[in-house]
Automatic annotation (TrEMBL):
It comes from Micromonospora humidisoli. Pfam families: GDE_N_bis, MGH1-like_GH. Residues 348-586 form the Mannosylglycerate hydrolase MGH1-like glycoside hydrolase domain. SUPFAM superfamilies: Six-hairpin glycosidases. InterPro entries: 6-hairpin_glycosidase_sf, 6hp_glycosidase-like_sf, GDE_N_bis, MGH1-like_GH. This is Amylo-alpha-1,6-glucosidase. Residues 8-189 form the Putative glycogen debranching enzyme N-terminal domain.
């Protein structure tokens, strides 16, 4: 698999190959991006006309990379007289310092060339291989190259400057240099992406994260955020490493919204460097016990952009919470509906769940009172626009069949919801986990109405509706002959009967009747769903099972974290611990950074988790996974003004100590220690 190296600062990022080069790509987002536009599509270095090859790459920091290079093929390295270092960083703009080192005892002359170019592609144009409709131009100046793109009022620009004299043409820069014996030569290049607003101003420059920030500033920002999180002490190095990596990745994924000027978490590099309703809220639930201050900006942003009209193109409905917000050309010209797009049936109940969970941890009643109207609107959506067939369930069917999403649950690829024989059901569809979210949202809405909105009648009504939904769901979704819940109901109310990881989310929501929970736990940890590295999205033996299919057999870390939370909620602590152990074992093979997904191959087939070829990394809800696993292991649960701590640390993990856990109780410490196998008694 081709090596790719990335650096990022918020939603400005650069993806290149293993030697630091960027070549035009129309199938994967390589290049320099900011707010969904590619500002560099070519960045290719040669020395005397020859490509360079990497001896080593230092990518320890998310915002800075250093490449150590030599010219020629690897067989020529033995007697290299010259080498190069490319030191680059990203922080509002992109900078690269080129250093040529002469290792010989004589003066040497070189022609150093850097090819430069931009197609100003929108991310969706790369994803769907669509041609540009505007006009690009390149203007060479004194040690500077200006690349521009215009399409009506849409105007993007990249300026590239060199700190030393260069010959500049429309395709790049050339330096004719002389380097003394055992000496070096260097130049510094600066690339500034510019997003022109309606009045021609640079929109990025007026946001804090659009300003130029050097590595030391970014490092200080990240370290300050990490220092606010609870301190972890443990005997399990995979857990310690994953925790450190997660906090740094979450810090790196913060970006400043153009629209509201608040810092939000981007969902994942490279495809999802923007606000996603579902991803952002599930990530917020994961980070809540560790960095609760990251959560309110997401809640307020989603409330501020809540649907208020019927708009078929955007799948917008009154009360609905958005799915995705984009800033690029295709959204601006309504070739994609993402400005914002509301094609998710689960984001609306998750909004209610997140706000209530946030108050339970922080005691921030002010925010709950402030958002009473949006929460009521969200709960109303569940019973009206969400219930397309009037059956008391939340269904989905896109209002926009041309560019809208077919599946509007978390498994949103086209083939993710299928019958056991592989057939696809018609629309509308009612997936099981969304009914669980709706149930939980009603219960939590009732709590907020009773405690903060002074509306006990509304609270009583929501509780009655939740109880009726739970009873109805356990009757209609249960498949008696298979002893698990259908992944969905089809338009005729029949079971979509494949066995999936979705049933783990049902445990998290609490909608499962107690007598059935044990059978669900058995399925989740059984050989068809559990790979040994985690729970697969789709069980082996199902018609569409594919261990490297996006939602039809891969293992998703975030999915497993919420399944572990659900198992723990129903008392299956050891089963939850097995999932925690598997995820942490897997993290070792990814340098502590869990990817978006990895293959669902049986663990006995391989000594390591197999990479999924296009997985996002870092990804926000994967970065949040070790945090939620820690919550599960330590049994952390807010109760009134206190934090319940009930640890059950998996065997062999040793001591797990989390200090200064923030919340309405101030800051408290949690300590757990795994028992020996003898303490557990015989295992069967």
């Amino acid at each position: 698999m081709q090596q790719r190296v990335s650096i990022l600062d918020g939603n400005t990022f650069l993806v290149c190959d293993g030697r630091g080069d960027v070549e035009p790509s129309f199938d994967f987002p390589t290049g320099l991006f900011s707010f969904d536009t590619r500002f560099l599509s070519t960045w290719l270095l040669t020395l005397d006309g020859e490509r360079l090859h990497a001896l080593s790459v230092d990518d320890a920091h998310s915002y800075q990379t250093r490449f150590f290079l030599v010219p020629g093929e690897p067989t020529h390295y033995l007697d290299a007289k010259v080498s190069m270092i490319r030191t680059r960083s990203i922080g509002g703009n992109f900078t690269e310092e080129l250093t040529v080192l002469n290792h010989s005892g004589r003066e040497m002359h070189f022609d150093l060339r850097l090819e430069m170019g931009s197609d100003f592609a929108d991310l969706f144009e790369i994803k769907h291989q669509r041609p540009k409709k505007g006009r690009t131009s390149a203007v060479a100046g004194d040690n500077a190259l200006r690349l521009t793109y215009r399409r009506e009022a849409f105007h993007r620009e990249a300026t590239i400057t060199s700190s030393t004299d260069a010959h500049v043409d429309q395709a790049g820069m050339t330096w004719s240099i002389t380097v003394a014996p055992h000496s070096e030569w260097n130049t510094r290049l600066t690339v500034t992406p510019i997003i022109h607003g309606a009045r021609g101003e640079d929109v990025r420059a007026i946001t804090a994260l659009g300003a130029v920030r050097g590595p030391s500033v970014i490092r200080a920002e990240q370290e300050e955020l990490v220092s606010r999180a609870p301190q972890l002490g443990c005997d399990c190095e995979p857990l310690a490493g994953a925790y450190r990596q997660s906090l740094h990745d979450l810090a790196a994924l913060r970006y400043e919204s153009i629209t509201l000027g608040v810092r939000l978490l981007a969902a994942g590099l490279p495809w999802f460097m923007t606000l996603f309703g579902r991803d952002s809220m599930l990530t917020s639930l994961q980070v809540l016990p560790f960095l609760p201050e990251l959560v309110p900006p997401t809640i307020l942003m989603l409330a501020g952009l809540q649907g208020h009209r019927l708009d078929d193109f955007r799948d917008e409905e009154p009360g609905k919470i958005l799915h995705e917000l984009r800033y690029g050309e295709t959204a601006g010209f309504e070739e994609q509906p993402h400005s914002p797009y509301y094609g998710a049936a689960d984001s609306t109940p998750l909004f209610v769940i997140l706000l209530d969970e946030y108050e339970r941890w922080t005691g921030d009643a002010t925010l709950v009172k402030q958002l009473e109207t949006p929460v009521r609107a969200a709960l109303h959506w569940i019973d009206t626009y969400g219930d397309l067939l009037g059956t008391g369930y939340v269904w989905y069917r896109s209002r926009n069949p041309e560019t809208g999403l077919e599946n509007q649950c978390w498994k949103d690829s086209w083939d993710a919801i299928s019958y056991a024989d592989g057939r696809l059901p018609g629309f509308p569809r009612a997936t099981c986990e969304i009914q669980g979210y709706a149930y939980d949202a009603k219960r939590r809405g009732a709590r907020m109405a009773r405690l903060f909105w002074n509306d006990p009648e509304y609270a009583d009504r929501l509780e009655r509706e939740a109880a009726a939904l739970k009873e109805r769901f356990n009757r209609d979704f249960w498949i008696p002959e298979k002893e698990y819940f259908a992944v969905a109901l089809d338009p005729d109310g029949r079971h979509v009967d494949s066995l999936t990881s979705n049933i783990g989310h049902l445990l998290w929501s609490g909608i499962v009747d107690e007598p059935r929970a044990a059978r669900i736990a058995e399925h989740l940890l059984g050989p068809r769903l559990y790979s040994g590295w985690g729970v697969r999205t789709l069980a082996t033996g199902e018609g569409r099972y594919n261990p490297i299919g996006y939602h039809v057999g891969t293992v998703w870390p975030f999915d497993n974290a919420f399944i572990a939370w659900g198992l723990s909620r129903y008392g299956f602590r050891e089963e939850a611990g097995r999932i925690c152990e598997a995820m942490l074992d897997a993290s070792r093979f990814f340098g502590g950074r869990l990817p978006e997904a990895f293959a669902g191959y049986e663990r006995t087939l391989t000594d390591y988790p197999v990479q999924y070829p296009t997985a996002c990394s870092p990804q926000a809800w994967s970065a949040g996974t070790p945090l939620l696993l820690l919550r599960v292991i330590l049994g952390l649960e807010p109760q009134g003004e206190h934090l319940i701590i009930d640890p059950l640390v998996p065997e062999g993990m040793g001591r797990v100590e989390l200090l200064d856990i923030p919340g309405r109780w101030g800051r408290v410490d949690a300590l757990g220690r795994s028992r020996t196998p003898r303490e557990h008694g015989p295992r069967h």
